[in-house]
């Protein structure tokens, strides 16, 4: 593949910025303060496109799960830290997992930023002309066709900003008129149903309404599969610009959320939430919303099939290769993506560095997982670790690392020595997603052929208080396996950050079908499509072979779907919102019995991990990166021992993020979310 590292000069081509970390958006207020009035902005091609580009600023950067989640504009993946999906050892980030936010300290609120761009979008739609200039004009030219495309993009982004608010806060005010910067136009909150219908109506305009001809179907420009990964098959200059595929996907997700318990009668305290005029904001349960979600998912699938889209498979269809390449190249599974990705800044910066063990040159090694997540991965037999008789946590095995990068000088996969059996015989997604104790790197350090990631006491992967694997694991899922900060190895790699992909929606579809009719064969079909690509037996195969049969049992199927989503979508920005819409965000294990407390009442959430204060190796080389003599000890006094790493407070109010206090102070009509007052 050719490396793609382009520079965004203006936000008008930011969505155009191919796999970069560009954030060069125009500050429109600065432009207007330079004696530009609205008429001049919307009659000049340069200023109009810059105004348009600003509206993309709220598109999330969910790739950021490390130190930069301190960013307070609500676009980074701090939710992964709040929810325990991800743990970052840096104290400035670790504190966010303690869930100490209140209405007056909403560090990651997106309210103000989304409403800023909603206003920006509304002004654009009201003022943008049919076209600007003539072809070849020195002052710039925007044709009628391109202006319609701009307007369709903005309508989509308007819908998306409202959705970003909805998934985080529940229903929020719908703005119906453009107020001046200093005007205080007050709005009450819409109801859930009103907000869903408003977003749906905006999407309808670009899917089959007055702007249905303005969006391209997809960004694909060629036929067939792009196995050469030379980017000739896709218009990556417009990776972030909305398409019909993105609009259909957002609409489907919207209705899945609307049908889910949090927004559909399941949150008891929300059912009594009213505006000051007595209007209820959250509806009673309505089973028909699952049918609406199903309809929109099927519309998306029909569109995807017609456009040659499907789950990504590598050319050799090897599951290890397929699930790695999925995140390294643009492909036909992607429905919408961003080129702005904090893994794209090279091996010594941001997320690539934060997920590289600390003793590899440039590595900071502090973004990883708790044991709670590790235990969710299936075995290679497609079973829960507690169901598979082949799984055990006794002893050690020499284990081939399937992530080894083969080359002219490396002909075979590296065999890692003395790997704890907990990590042996797990599914391909486990090896693709996780760096665990003793795992080799995809390219071994020069001069250290037996290097391993040693997070335990004495190991060099523990760099300092801010740079270590807090629970004994690092995130590996998105790392590029050609990179190494040594010699002539590549040092950076451009890749997309995926917002919507088909596997995500296949699992939505299984979930929706299960809530409508547990006997629907599509439930198992669509879960099994995801499992097949992941290289593990599907539930149909398990049932046919007499291993495990969940088919037709609504509760068991629901558990299977939820778990598959957590594993398949891990680290992509879905976990927090899924756990909340399912109303499982407050579930936790009893610290002493291990039993699950399956409610959202106030409690402490327990996060487990390996005991990094204890050794797993008795003798290292003088750098601490190669084991000379291993310890066979397991359990108390050993690294290989599940311990409580963190205890975090949970309050039921956290099912919905609080409306920021300063926003409440501005409005006499806006009411706070349940239990925050």
General description of the model:
With 677 residues, the chain is an alpha+beta fold. It contains 21 helices and 14 strands. A hairpin with a 6-residue loop joins strand 9 (588-589) and strand 10. Helix 6 packs antiparallel against helix 7 and helix 11 packs antiparallel against helix 16 (502-516). It is globular and about 75 Å long.
Short key terms for the protein model shown above:
single chain; 677 residues; alpha+beta; two-stranded antiparallel sheet; two-stranded antiparallel ribbon; 21 helices; 14 strands; disordered N terminus
Task: Report a brief summary of the structure.
With 677 residues, this protein is an alpha+beta fold.
Number of helices: 21
The Cα radius of gyration reads: 25 Å
Q: What is the residue-averaged pLDDT?
A: 93
Structural class: alpha+beta
- Percent of residues in helices comes to 25-40%
Oligomer: single chain
Proportion of residues in β-strands: 5-15%
List how many beta strands DSSP finds. 14
Provide the spatial order of strands within the biggest beta sheet.
Answer: 1-3
Largest sheet: 2 strands, antiparallel
Shape designation: globular
Poorly predicted regions: 1-31
Q: How far apart lie the N and C ends?
A: 54 Å
Topology of this protein?
Blueprint: H1 28-33, H2 38-41, H3 45-54, H4 78-83, E1 87-88, H5 91-94, H6 111-127, H7 144-169, H8 192-207, H9 244-259, H10 268-271, H11 288-306, H12 319-325, E2 334-338, H13 350-354, E3 367-368, H14 371-374, E4 396-400, E5 415-420, H15 428-433, E6 434-435, E7 474-475, E8 497-501, H16 502-516, H17 521-534, H18 539-544, H19 554-568, H20 575-581, E9 588-589, E10 596-597, E11 603-609, E12 617-620, E13 627-630, E14 643-650, H21 661-666
Antiparallel strand pairs: 1-3, 2-8, 4-5, 6-7, 9-10, 11-14, 12-13
Helix pairs in contact: 3-6, 6-7, 7-8, 7-9, 8-9, 9-11, 11-16, 16-17, 16-19, 17-19
């Amino acid at each position: 593949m050719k490396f793609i590292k382009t520079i965004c000069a203006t936000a008008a081509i930011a969505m155009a910025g191919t796999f970069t970390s560009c954030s060069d958006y125009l500050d429109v207020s600065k432009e207007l303060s330079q004696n530009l009035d609205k008429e001049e902005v919307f009659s000049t091609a340069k200023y109009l496109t810059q105004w348009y580009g600003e509206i993309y600023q709220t598109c999330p950067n969910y790739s950021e799960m490390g130190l930069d989640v301190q960013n307070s504009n609500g676009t980074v993946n701090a939710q992964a830290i709040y929810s325990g999906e991800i743990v970052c050892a840096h104290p400035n980030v670790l504190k966010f997992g303690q869930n100490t936010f209140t209405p007056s300290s909403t560090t990651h609120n997106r309210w103000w930023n989304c409403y800023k761009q909603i206003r920006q979008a509304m002004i654009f739609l009201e003022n943008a002309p049919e076209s600007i200039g003539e072809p070849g004009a020195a002052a710039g030219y925007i044709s009628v066709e391109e202006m319609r495309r701009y307007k369709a993009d903005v309508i989509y982004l308007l819908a998306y900003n409202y959705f970003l608010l909805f998934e985080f806060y529940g229903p929020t005010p719908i703005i119906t008129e453009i107020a001046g910067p200093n005007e205080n136009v007050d709005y009450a909150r819409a109801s859930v149903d009103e907000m869903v219908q408003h977003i749906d109506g905006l999407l309808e305009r670009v899917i089959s309404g007055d702007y249905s001809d303005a969006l391209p179907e997809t960004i694909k420009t060629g036929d067939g599969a792009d196995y050469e990964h030379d980017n000739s098959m896709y218009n990556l200059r417009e990776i972030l610009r909305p398409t019909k595929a993105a609009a259909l996907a957002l609409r489907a997700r919207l209705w899945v959320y609307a049908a889910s318990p949090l927004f559909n009668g399941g949150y008891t305290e929300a059912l009594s939430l009213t505006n000051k005029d007595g209007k209820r904001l959250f509806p009673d349960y309505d089973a028909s919303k699952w049918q609406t979600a199903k309809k929109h998912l099927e519309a998306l699938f029909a569109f995807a099939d017609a456009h040659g889209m499907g789950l990504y498979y590598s050319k050799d269809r090897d599951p290890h290769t397929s699930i790695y390449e999925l995140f390294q190249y643009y492909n036909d599974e992607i429905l919408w993506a961003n080129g702005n990705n904090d893994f794209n800044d090279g091996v010594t910066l941001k997320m690539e560095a934060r997920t590289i063990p600390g003793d590899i040159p440039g590595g900071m090694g502090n973004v990883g997982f708790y044991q709670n997540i590790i235990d969710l991965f299936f075995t290679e037999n497609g079973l829960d670790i507690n169901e598979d008789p082949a799984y055990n946590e006794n002893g050690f095995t020499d284990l081939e690392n399937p992530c080894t990068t083969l080359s002219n000088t490396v002909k075979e996969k590296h065999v890692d020595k003395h790997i704890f059996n907990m990590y042996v015989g797990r599914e391909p997604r486990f090896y693709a997603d996780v760096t665990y104790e003793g795992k080799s790197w995809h390219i071994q350090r020069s001069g250290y052929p037996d290097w391993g990631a040693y997070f335990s006491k004495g190991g060099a992967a523990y760099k300092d208080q801010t740079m270590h694997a807090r629970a004994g694991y690092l995130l590996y899922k998105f790392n590029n396996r050609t990179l190494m900060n040594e010699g002539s190895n590549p040092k950076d790699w451009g890749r997309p950050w995926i917002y919507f992909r088909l596997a995500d929606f296949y699992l939505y579809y299984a979930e929706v079908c299960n809530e409508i009719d547990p006997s629907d064969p599509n439930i198992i079909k669509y879960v099994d499509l995801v499992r097949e690509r992941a290289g593990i037996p599907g539930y149909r195969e398990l049932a046919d072979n007499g291993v495990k049969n969940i088919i037709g049992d609504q509760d068991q199927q629901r558990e299977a779907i939820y778990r598959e989503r957590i594993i398949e979508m891990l680290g992509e920005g879905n976990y927090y919102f899924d756990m909340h819409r399912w109303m499982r965000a407050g579930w936790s294990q009893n610290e002493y019995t291990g039993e699950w407390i399956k409610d959202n009442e106030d409690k402490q959430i327990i996060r487990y991990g390996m005991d990094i204060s204890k050794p797993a190796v008795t003798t290292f080389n003088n750098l601490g990166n190669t084991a000379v003599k291993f310890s066979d000890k397991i359990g108390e006094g050993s690294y290989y021992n599940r311990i409580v790493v963190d205890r975090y407070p949970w309050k039921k109010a956290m099912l919905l993020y609080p409306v920021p206090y300063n926003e409440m102070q501005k409005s006499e009509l806006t009411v706070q979310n349940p239990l925050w007052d």
